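Appendix C reproduces, verbatim, an entry submitted by the partner laboratory led by Prof. M.T., so that reviewers can inspect both the input and the predicted structure.
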Amino acid sequence: IRQYVALLNEALAYMNDYVDRYEIDCGHRRTGSLIAGTSEKHKAKVRKLTDTVRELGGRVRYVDEDEMRERDLPVAFNCAMWGEGGTFDPYRYVNGIRKVGERKGVRLYEQTPAIGLEDGSPVVLKTPRGEVRAKKVLLATNAYTARLPFESVGRRRVLPVYPAFVETEVLTDEQWQRIGWSGGEGICTAHSMIASYNHSPKGTLVVGTVKPQIGFRSSLDYQASQKLLAIQEAAFRRRFPMLNDVKIQHGWGGWVAMTTNFMPTCSKLKGSEGVFYAMAYQGHGVPKATLMGRI
């Protein structure tokens, strides 16, 4: 756990610096990130979690119900572990990273599947229309690692998980006033199966990951069903009944990778000189993935 806390501290600091250094326009708001309680029994759980994380070096503090109301946070949440972090638009962030890479001379080849790999010096990657030879190859296939047509460490170390999300239409100022949340903090719940609630930079509310699907190689073609998206909408309606006139604009889902210890896995493939892997960034995944890019 201490390693996890240290990694998260470093990842958040690195991402903040990265966004500033390269002036990435992604609506990044450093408003804080909360693990919030939704019931009386959560108060003791969240307080204990906060004490533990602080002892392990985490930059967090406990926020009681009175302060939650003072800070204009939604009444659906009655306490929180308040830590560093915030919200941003991940699509704009990834496109910003792409532009940084292109300015530095990185060449990107999309829609080019790897259908084979020959380890050696150099490493040879086979594609439908040719071969790529390189001194080093990084496998960054995350949840889809099980689909690789060659043996890799990810098949044994990562578990594909399918979270789903729904996004509301843009809320009016009057609708936002009904729930507060003027600070735009990122919120996830203290449940064992975490649910997330985000006040997006464009003024919508994004809800997701209540009952994610767990998949294996044969099920990675799965797409978010109406039933799964309905679960996310029900969570939104339950937490924010005062927004019963707000419509859901759309929903989506996608496969991500998890590990049993919630730590990213990053190393050289056993017995190889030039094949490496990096994947599984659950929990503040974007900052962790950004940091792994540096490593």
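The first helix runs from residue 2 to 21. Additional entries are available on request from the coordinating office.
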